[in-house]
UniProtKB/TrEMBL annotation:
Keywords linked to the UniProt accession: Oxidoreductase
A molecular function (GO) term: oxidoreductase activity
Signal sequence bounds: none
Protein family membership: Belongs to the flavin monoamine oxidase family.
Highest taxon listed in the record's lineage: Bacteria
Cofactors that this protein relies on: FAD
UniProt domain Amine oxidase: residue ranges: 16-447
Residues the entry annotates as binding FAD: 16, 35-36, 235
Binding site for substrate: 340
InterPro entries: Amino_oxidase, FAD/NAD-bd_sf, Flavin_amine_oxidase, Flavin_MAO
Name this protein carries in UniProt: FAD-dependent oxidoreductase
Amino acid sequence: MSAIERDVVIIGAGASGLTVATELKKAGLTVAVLEARDRVGGRLWTDDVDGAMLEIGGQWVSPDQDALKSTLAELGLETYPRYREGENIYLNADGELSRFEGEIFPVPPKTEAEIVTLIEKLDALVAEIDPDRPWAHPLAKDLDEISFSRWLETQTDDQEARDNIGMFIAGAMLTKPAHAFSALQALLMAASAGSFSNLVDADFILDERVVGGLQQVPLMLAERLDGDVRLGQPVRRLRWHEGGVTAATDSIEVKARFAVLAVPPILISRISYEPPLPRRQQQLHQHLSMGFVIKVHAVYETPFWRESGLSGTAFSPYELVHEAYDNTNFGDSRGTLVGFVADEAADGVFALSAEERKRRILTSLSHYYGEKALEPVVYYESDWGSEEWTRGAYAASFDMGGLARYGADLRTPVGPIWFSCSDMAGKGYQHVDGAIRVGRETAAAIIAAARA
């Protein structure tokens, strides 16, 4: 086993870990980044599948994501707008298709009024929430002890209004059933984007993409680290004391003054600690779990939906694919649709054979776009739940009561051990913007500690 010494060892070469490493090196500290996978990027992964470039992981850039935007500018990466010309599609509980423009779905007037009222109520609550300290809200404990689905029931008896509002948090973001997380967790999700209105506005939250793929961010950050990133090195043991740490993989041992765990919280317990992490950390991590979503990629010879005046944007809380978008690559003559199957619906289709799952998913897409959607030239399912070093998507969230009880300690360092990832972000929570933001904050704290 080879042994090296550095100021800081960083476990995980996703956007957050690589941001930490980059900032530390700028400050003159030495680093080693140990990554379990054979690639960098974590939940950012741009790959070629059957001749099509697919964003298997995260991909979108929102106007408020200044941490990500400044990184893109520094790396010289260009963006382009998501295609959104034409009409959107909505399917109601009876399977009736409506074409519409604007942000509010074409529902009966009473339901529309209820949806608008719910958004206004949520925006008012979100305005009171500090995304970096949601547990500090005066009603945090109460809001964390009621599920989001139950909270919605206390606000309206209109089922379609509840279904649509619930879809944006449950299916589209936390990828858990709305009965499985609290109202406080839902408010944090909205506060991380600035407002609930932002979260339900696809033209805001899914604004731009990066030419060539978002994984270029970690790839280029890793290139600039001049060999300090080591792939295929899952950390098995972390020995620590107040004076430093020793991180051991199967072939490398790194001694350092500090360690940064830049991995999803559910993976923290995959490492053996000597001595064990404190009781508070052990308990905290048991109350976090990942969501579950299938990201479906369907590539066609042409973006045929545009010929019918459709934007490609489609929604229905009653469909297997609850949301879908035109995801055509920059400068590509072919057309790509991306759709999402989340939480319990994803459980259901993974009980099927791969062929039957594909058939049902494409059938769901055809309910939006017609028969042509049944025949893609490339089809691929991003299944992060089966990824050994991710185990779900898009991020970890607390169970009922967990956010108010443990949230304040989510990033609290343990001796020389620090924590950094998008799952722990306030603003930018579960997005690469949050990963970068937390990475910068973690690096700044370590630099201050190193100079103390």
